Amino acid sequence: MTVLPKPGTRPWHAFYNPGVRPDYVPPDTTLTGMMAEAFAAHGPRVLIEYPGEEITYAEMQALAARGAAALRAFGLNPGDRLALHLPNCPWHPVFFFAAMTAGLVVTHLSPLDAPEEIAHKLADSDAKLVVSLARPEFSAPLMRAASHGKIPPVVQCPDGAEDAVSDGAIPVAAFWAGQEGADWAPVAVDPQDIALLQYTGGTTGRPKAAVLTHANIAASVNIYREYLTGEVVRQPGKHTLLYAPVFHILGLSTQLLRGFADGLTLHLRPRFDAARALDDIETHGINILSGVPTMWIAILRQPGVEKRDLSSLEFIGSGGAPLPVEVYQRVCQLTGLKLRGGWGMTETSPAGSNVPAGLPDDKLGTIGIPLPGLEIKIVDTADPGRELPYGEDGEMAIRGPNVTSAYWNRPEETAAAFHDGWFLTGDIGHMDADGFLYLVDRKKDMILSGGFNVYPVMIEDAVHRYPGVSEAMAIGVPDEYRGESAKVFVVLNPGAETFTLEALQAFLADKLGRHEIPRALEFREALPKTSVGKLDRKALRAEVRAEVEVA
């Protein structure tokens, strides 16, 4: 017997923490309003601890004021786009908060972006200025991007002994010289003004930007805060280890901005290192640790991890990719805590669902329940106006104040992403009768590798440039460490010679991000095609899955 969800019923409300308002409506505020509250409430408390450096909330306010004054003096006006080409380092929050103070729109360039991707994002967003690091691994891609399009002026910030400002770049010391002591006077913005253009994949292979307003991001932060009512992550002064990339919506919204709003001390690290993470937990008394599944897998693999002192941990979380049940169980056993997973996406800023504190034993594998103030339903993939019964797989649809309203300059893709005000996520799953969600597949062909989105079309476009390639198709295959990694299947032109995976990877190094480089290669005489002659990715995935099962 099929049971349709009754209109207005929300069975998952029973699993919220005491004090959580089920029909929570987040305040219609701006990020600068949120900043003002945090700066006033937590001024002397340490906000950022970075190796060799500490920055208090009050000091961050002064740095944001100085940065905003410099941005205005350079000629940037409210609404202009500022590109941040920065890893996890103090310069990111400094210039993110400076941009918000000046009324600018931030767009992120991932340190993993290939030069072509950088050039595309800069042109598409019409960025007026780039803030980056004075290090070769950051300056080189920007220089190479110039061969693919016009690059705006670049401000370079120091981050180590090997720093060297590139020819033509502006040292940050010169950029904001004379702005010391500037007042923190944020430009008046409306909650519906754009705060962030966050790039995600496009159906044509070109990344597209989700338009996220001040209201979208502030709503996401406040929805998480409401959901976590009464938990340790809401207690000012608690210590969190921040490895999640802050140029990614997960790290930016759920960790940097939410932690900032609640007065946490963020131990910011440039990259994840399992041995260093265990040292940090013991040295700094880390209370909160969240990251992608690959982080937890790496920690579990550390020699002697069961002998390390993890007693300071009070909250652990995972997101960005599906978490294997076996990993969940081993992490819970190691820490004595329940590992809290969840689901979200760039377009939802990224609030969506989360595993409650009192997870029933029969719900293993769930991505949690809808967060307060959000609506999630399962719809027919062929008819998104038809809601499906409990337990039946379909496309997840979501609506709420945190959800983007558009893709930047992509009206057709925007129209295709919505149905009657509901955002169609492209994720396939089901909801049980208690309101717990389960992700089973992705309607889109995206590969989730180590928490990063990898888009097959981009890989295929790049592989097609290799001499002798006739056809190429990329799919995600199981990867013990990353969850998934890309494997590319190639058909050669008649008479063309085969090549090694290493040769292909070297060829792609300047065309794809490191996380997008295929880690497996297979040559075939032919690739499966649909009845109309299109390459059939679904059939190829089924073939590979069958081969694995036979093996």
Average pLDDT rating: 93
Give the fraction of residues assigned to helices.
25-40%
Beta content:
15-25%
State the helix count.
15
Separation of the first and last Cα atoms: 38 Å
| CATH architecture descriptor text of the domain at 39-189 | 3-Layer(aba) Sandwich
How many strands appear in the DSSP assignment? 27
CATH class of the domain at 39-189: Alpha Beta
Structural class assignment: alpha/beta
What Rg, in angstroms, do the CA atoms define? 23 Å
How are the strands of the biggest sheet laid out side by side?
2-1-11-10-12-13-14
Which blocks of ≥5 consecutive residues have pLDDT under 50?
none
Characterize the main sheet: 7 strands, mixed
Looking at the structure, the CATH topology of the domain at 39-189 is Rossmann fold
Tell me, briefly, the overall form: globular
Keywords:
551 residues; AMP-dep_synth/lig_dom; Rossmann fold; alpha/beta; 7-stranded mixed beta sheet; globular; 15 helices; 27 strands; GMP Synthetase, Chain A, domain 3
